[in-house]
Design brief:
Layout (H helix, E strand, L loop, with lengths): L1 H9 L5 H28 L3 E6 L4 E6 L2 H15 L1 H10 L11 E5 L2 E5 L1
C-alpha cells in the first residue's frame, strides 16, 4: 500500500530498489546506528567544555546525572511508540487500522474515507 500511495502522490512509480531500501536496509541501518550511539553513550560519559575562571583555563566536565536521565528519557519517549505498536499488532491487541477512517491523497485532492 505504501508504494501505491507513493505512486499516487508522485504521479510515477519509484524504482523497485527504493522498496527494498525502505523496507529492509534503512530500518537495519537505523537500528545499528541507534545501538552504536547507545554503546558509545554507556562507554564514554557525556562531557562538555566549560571555562573555569578561577583556574583561567577550559576544562571538560561531566554532565549532571539529572541531565543524562532527562536526555535518556526524551530518547525513550521518542522511540517507544514504534516497538509498542509493533508488539500490539503482533499480539493482536489492536486490529489493523484499515477499518478506521483514513485520508487518501489523489492527484492534489484530499479524500476522506470512512
Amino acid at each position: 500500500r505504501f508504494f501505491e500511495d507513493l505512486k499516487d502522490m508522485l504521479g510515477f512509480t519509484p524504482y523497485r530498489c527504493y522498496y527494498y531500501l525502505w523496507k529492509y536496509i534503512t530500518p537495519i541501518l537505523l537500528l545499528v546506528l541507534m545501538l552504536a550511539s547507545f554503546i558509545q553513550m554507556v562507554l564514554t560519559p557525556a562531557t562538555y567544555k566549560a571555562w573555569i575562571q578561577e583556574e583561567g583555563k577550559e576544562r571538560e566536565l561531566l554532565y549532571p546525572t539529572w541531565a543524562i536521565v532527562l536526555f535518556t528519557s526524551l530518547i525513550v519517549v521518542a522511540i517507544m511508540p514504534v516497538p509498542v505498536v509493533l508488539l500490539l499488532h503482533y499480539f493482536n491487541v489492536i486490529k489493523d487500522s484499515s477499518s478506521l477512517s483514513s485520508v487518501s491523497y489523489k492527484k492534489g485532492r484530499i479524500i476522506a474515507e470512512s
